[in-house]
Amino acid sequence: MIFYLLLLSLLMVLLSTTVNSSITWEQWSKNQNIKSGNNWNNNNNNWKIIDNNKHNNNRSIYSWTSLPDRIVSLKNGARVRGKIDTSASNKGMYFFKSIRFGEVPVRFGLPKMARPWSGIYDATFSRGGCAQGLPFVSKAEDCLFINIWQPFDTKDHNFELKPVIVYFFGGGFNFGNINILSTQLFDGGRIADLGDCVFATVQYRLGAFGFLYTGTDRAPGNQGVHDIILSLRWIQENIDRFGGDPRNVTVFGQSAGSMSISAMIISPLARGLFHRAIMRSGSINEYLAYSPENSLKNSINFAKRMKCPIHNIDIMVDCLQNKSVEELTFKTLSFNLPAIFEGKQMFIMYGDKGGILPERPSKMLAKGTYNPVDLISGFTYGELGTITTYMLPELINGIRKFTYDDMKRLFRKSLMAVQGPPDYIRHIFNFYTKNLREYPANTELRRTLVDTLSDGIMICPTYLFTLKYAQMLSRNSSNTNRVYSYRYDHFSPYMMLLLCFRWMGPCHEDDVPIMFGIAASPNLLPIIFTSIDTKISKQIIRTWVNFARHGKPGAHLDGLEWPEFRSTNQRIGDNKTQIAWKQMIIDQPYRITINSNFYRCKFWEPVLFPDNPDDYDV
Fold first, then answer.
1. Three-state SS for 45?
2. Where are the alpha helices (DSSP H) in 347-459?
3. What is the pLDDT of residues 192-229, one digit of tens each?
4. What is the rounded CA–CA span in Å between residue 483 and residue 277?
5. What is the Cα–Cα distance from 383 to 459, expressed in whole angstroms?
6. Which alpha helices (H) appear in 117-213, and where do they start and end?
7. pLDDT (tens digit per residue) in 484-515
8. What CA–CA distance (Å, rounded) separates 350 from 151?
9. What residues contact 491, with CB distance under 8 A and at least 6 apart?
10. Which region is the signal sequence (predicted)?
């Protein structure tokens, strides 16, 4: 995991552009016009102008790059310029980089739609990322940008709007950057190309800038999620001008991005902004870490580290607003992974003042509060394998024998984020160790610890949220939405470069090269990816796009039809109908499993979703 993040950070140094964080709106707007004018072709007939989805591409095409850049007129009258390039399949692909969709008038406040700019916005190069504590990353507050890939369509006489997929990156709400996604390694055009869809990636505020919470309107919490929702409003207004269908928008997220999507599925503020969702490894839940009380405590502790007074909230916010970007990012400790999993970081919360999640998630689910969308969700087999050994390096020692006292100590250390009812850690310990020997081998102990931490932090929050959402939909006789689930089991040698070893199973984020189509490119890092990786990646991308287009995954995984998560079977013996929770296992060969995570995740329900108990006939 650490290696993976450092690798991405290095790529950002080499492939992204930094931005001066002190630039004003007027300076910024002026600079865009200057940059646009530098390469301006005075022969305006050579510019491709799109408005109201009109295309005029009736020429013979010999070289995509010889075509002129494209200008798109937005709903508010502003204009942006993108460039065309050749896709992996030798098709034309328009790419619009770092289009500004929003602005933040006051630090820690809610975002607003970007004001129209004068001149033509040059969207042929990348701007900086949002301020964060990772090394080598630009530290800009002016960072609400969206990247858009649009396949070139020569069939103007039969032009149809394409499905839209919008990707939200992960990173614990403390790091991430869409500039990585604009490089060859993380090229969103790959999915747009393979799936003939419009693909977008969105940047949102991180750390204190995006998640400081004071219980007041000056820092309402979940500001970064408000950024994401604003981007979806921008897409509803403008994506048709890029050939995308605003009535067919699929949100797609991993880790923190997936958690944001789960919040939007039940948030009243996101209703009608998207129609399908793909959640990978993460969901909102009710650990104390996500509560208003813990969020306020973390924010106050952050202010203490910044040497700001905490006796008065307004004075505290004034002090934090006067700190430099560099000071705030240095103190966010974004690269401290244990702090994220111990509930000591500022990230998504329920009960925020801005109304993203006005109540606890399980209470909203119990009330039937949700946005009706089709859903695919899933996780990797060994989600927190790398994190567990990072936090507990003694597990790597294959010589020393561990006792039960050692195990209890390791459990307490690894489960600091699980702040449930009194004595719950003991219940967790007993539940997961009941089948262990008195003196378990290191291999047994480390597998148990990885399973425990993975279940509690990633797997069961995702599994239970999906299960409860499917249950809610099933109670509505007029519902037509469908829910699907998967578990990613395929282990590839490249994962060892990311410090995830075979005994762990695929770890958190290690499926990104497969799921994002990186391994689907035959000429990209052929030494790292196997032919099986490439095959699975191509089939997964076709599955995502089929889901985005039709609302179901289809049978793109070696012809195996992907069943709905909540299915019914005839019970043997009394012939009664019973519920079966079916998941697609992504591995070779692909297969379907029934109730495989059900009982372990049911154990976690009292702390993850306490207000929404349910009876499940399995």
1. helix
2. 361-366, 385-391, 404-414, 424-433, 442-454
3. 998 999 999 999 999 999 999 999 999 999 999 999 99
4. 10
5. 7
6. 189-195, 207-211
7. 999 999 999 988 888 888 888 899 988 988 98
8. 38
9. 502, 505, 506
10. 1-21
Q: How many CB atoms lie within 10 A of CB 88?
A: 18
Please tell me whether the overall predicted TM-score, pTM, comes out greater than 0.85 for this model.
Answer: yes
Active-site hit among 29, 255, 281, 295: 255
Domains of the chain are 2-332 (3.40.50.1820), 380-608 (3.40.50.1820)
Which amino acid appears at position 317 of this protein? V
CA 261, 264, 266, 270 dihedral sign is negative
State how far the Cα of 278 lies from the Cα of 546, in Å rounded to an integer.
12
Q: Which residues of 468-499 are buried (b: 16+ CB within 10 A; e: fewer)?
A: bbbbbbeeeeeeebbbbbbbbbbbbebbeebb
Catalytic, 255? Answer: yes
CA atoms within 13 A on the CB side of 205: 34
Q: Among residues 155, 134, 131, 110, which one has the least CA distance to residue 7?
A: 134
Rg (CA), the chain: 24
Distance CA 396, CA 361 (A): 37
Q: Work out whether the CA dihedral 204, 210, 211, 214 comes out positive or negative.
A: negative
Residue tagged 């106050």 (tokens) = 300
Structure tokens at 260: 């944001």
- Residue found under tokens 């560099």: 326
The answer to whether 259 and 348 have CB atoms below 8 angstroms apart is yes
